[in-house]
Amino acid sequence: MWALLVLIGAASVSAHLEDLSFDGQKVFRVIPQNDEQVEILNFLASMMEVDFWQPDSVTLLRPKMQVDFRIEAEKSFDVEDLLKESGMEYQVLIDNLQAALDAQFDSKARTASHSYEKYNNWDTIAAWTADIAAQNPDLVSRSVIGETFEGRPMYLLKMGKSGPNKKAIFMDCGFHAREWISPAFCQWFVKEAVETYGKDTVMTTLLDELDFYVLPVVNIDGYIYTWTNNRMWRKTRSRNAHSVCIGTDPNRNFDAGWCTAGASKSPCASTYCGSAPESEKETKALADFIREHLSTIKAYLTIHSYSQLLLFPYSYTYNLPPDYKELNSIASAASKELASLYNTTYTYGPGAETIYLAAGGSDDWAYDQGIKYTFTLELRDTGSYGFLLPESLIKPTCEETLLAVKYIANYVLEHLY
């Protein structure tokens, strides 16, 4: 078996996952049963480029954990042989990644303009932020909170009826470039707010009593890159000193246990923590805005995908937060709300305990800034599509997620501190 691994490794030196075509690439799911099988996966990752989807780094692998990873087309048969030989349970989640990629675009709303039921590219989203504010001046305003590494403005939408001393909820989407369902939800949330204000009593009360800050895409440069160059890109697009590797994981770049567990010091890793906390222009802009509005922001919601989780701090330590009981009961009730529509099951709990240790996340940072009601949602699905959720599932995913978000927002309104 080790001979097979060496052969696989020798052949992969020149291969890169930046290829535009994902034809023949496979996504595997394995569940290593013991340390030896974990070691085999570690060795595999050291011999070739393995793109870990879940967990997001080889360092987080442990026995009995569900592991999803993507492999180049020409290596997939060797990898399959290796898994068989090692006796590891495995399944092929996606047999041909290019086909899954093409199948994402199955929306009936094939329009060149903006649609809430398809994936919109950045230019379309940017234009939409201007339009939605222009069309709803009494409810929505747009501002720029910073710019990306490549110089693009970071648009923030503020929603709510104007009123004195209003508290606020901050929500962001699109931290990781390839998680397209995330920005789709931020757009959906804004649509629902403006369309149901004055009709839906809960939404009307929320917008009368609270402000919502919505950052539709945090990692704009990375998001554009997933549309133009590499659909599987995760990080920002910043240059790294003394390295040819590009980008930092923006959700490992916050000053919360920075660069300890579950983050990498290697600029080539997908979980690279950056050269320092807030080294990325995008994370610094977000953090600066929240710091400036700490007296009013009472909740922080960050939307990711995939795996159907509702998480709260901490992720950088196994220690439970002081507000554990309250946060856990909110997560439990919000998960029930979410499931009430399509029976979609969410797992909830503190990040580290529920999935794995991951330092430098925006949620832990926000909580440590004093924002008590801090939650991360990992949207659909649990792996059949992974990051390539078809457009036909945008609507049901957003509808159910909205129920959880409204529940949390309403709870925050009733428990202002």
UniProtKB/TrEMBL annotation:
It catalyses: Preferential release of a C-terminal lysine or arginine amino acid. InterPro entries: CARBOXYPEPT_ZN_1, CARBOXYPEPT_ZN_2, CPB_M14_CPD, M14A-like_propep, M14A_act_pep, Peptidase_M14. It comes from the Eukaryota. It is an enzyme of class 3 (hydrolase). Its cofactor is Zn(2+). Keywords: Carboxypeptidase, Cytoplasmic vesicle, Disulfide bond, Hydrolase, Metal-binding, Metalloprotease, Protease, Secreted, Signal, Zinc, Zymogen. Its main location: secreted. Residues 118-412 form the Peptidase M14 domain. Its EC number is 3.4.17.2. CDD domains: M14_CPB. One of its GO terms (cellular component) is cytoplasmic vesicle. It is found in: Secreted; Zymogen granule lumen. Belongs to the peptidase M14 family. This is Carboxypeptidase B. It comes from Rhagologus leucostigma.
